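Table S2 (continued). Query chain:
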Amino acid sequence: MLALIAGGGALSIGVVFWILMLFWLIFGLWSNYGAGGINYRPFGGHILLWCLLFLLGWQVFGFPIGR
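Corresponding output:
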């Protein structure tokens, strides 16, 4: 991925999808963490949706590691 960015090549839609999925996971977990710990109520729905879209992305774009 860094070679694509440094070489001036365009990122494929698959790479963009996996980067956005990673950002969504990180910021989603961060936003559900409050002063009293993790707020588990929206956390379950967030993880379920993330897993479903991960499986969809795996089917459409392939596994993110080892490309």
